[in-house]
Structures are given as C-alpha cells and as structure tokens.
Amino acid sequence: MHPLAPILCASLPGIVCAFAHYFPWRHWFKRGRLPRLWAYVVGLLSILVPATLAALFAASSAGETIGLLWLAAGSAGIGTLIPWWHDWTKRAEYNAADAAERELYGE
After folding, report:
1. Rounded distance, CA 53 to CA 32, Å?
2. Is the Cα torsion angle 9, 13, 18, 22 positive or negative in sign?
3. pTM of the predicted protein model
4. Is the CB of residue 42 less than 8 Å from the CB of residue 34?
5. How far apart are CA 63 and CA 72, in angstroms?
6. CB-count exposure of residue 14 (10 Å: 0-12, 13-18, 19+)
7. 73: left (phi over 0), alpha (psi -120 to 50) or beta
8. Which pairs count as long-range contacts for 102-105, CB under 8 Å and 24+ apart, including other chains?
9. Which of 7, 5, 8, 17 is nearest to 78 (CA)?
10. CA separation for the pair 42, 103 (Å, rounded)
11. 8 touches 58 (CB < 8 A)
12. Residues 92, 85: Cα–Cα separation, whole Å
C-alpha cells in the first residue's frame, strides 16, 4: 500500500468534519446552520471520497480497503466529537461564569 493512503484517510475526513462544524453556515441558510440532511451528506462524503480514492489507487487487497474505510470513519468521528466537546466545555465555562456573576451582582 502507498504510504500516503492511510495519511489521507486519517486526516482528511476529520479536517472536513471539523471545518464543517465551524463554517459560517448562517450566510447561506435561513436558520443559520447547515440542515441536518446536508450535514449527513457532507459527513458521509468526507468518509467515502478519501477512502474510495485511497482504495482505488493504493490498496492491493480487500483487507486494506476495509481498513482504509474504517480509518476514514474513525477520523470523521473524531473530527466531529472534538468540536462538540470543545463547544460543550466552553458553554459550561460560560454558564458557570454567568452564575457566579449573578450570585455576586444579583439579577
């Protein structure tokens, strides 16, 4: 297998999913976010396109192809979970700071 195939499958899906999470969708959609169906399409394509290209050009067996597909799926999962975790952590910090200010200064 070509050494760039696993690198492509390990990096590109995660980068695309993280980029799609923070992209300013409010400029293109009324509700200010990417519709759920389009989000699933972007996520699925971010997995399938790199895995397919790597499998076509670099994989020499079915096992390598399946490994590349799972590597791309794991990368997309991590690229989705890390931005969600970051947002959740920041939201918790801001809520704690707001609660401390309300307690200190009153409502």
Report:
1. 33
2. positive
3. 0.81
4. yes
5. 14
6. buried
7. alpha
8. none
9. 17
10. 43
11. no
12. 11
Cα 89 to Cα 83: distance, rounded to the nearest angstrom: 10
> Containing domain of residue 70, as a range?
4-79
Count of Cβ atoms closer than 10 Å to residue 48 Cβ:
15
Residue type, 34: L
Whether 20 is covered by a domain: the verdict is yes
Q: What's the CA angle centered on 70, arms 20 and 21, to 5 degrees?
A: 10
Average pLDDT over residues 69-88: 94
Q: In the prediction, which pLDDT does 58 show? A: 87
Domain total of the chain: 1
Domain-located, residue 56: yes
- Indicate whether 53 belongs to any domain: yes
What confidence tens digit (pLDDT) does each residue in 20-76 have? 888 888 888 888 888 889 889 988 998 999 999 898 888 889 999 999 999 999 999
With respect to residue 47, please indicate whether it lies within any of the assigned structural domains: yes
* Spatial distance between the Cα atoms of 3 and 12, rounded to a whole number of angstroms: 15
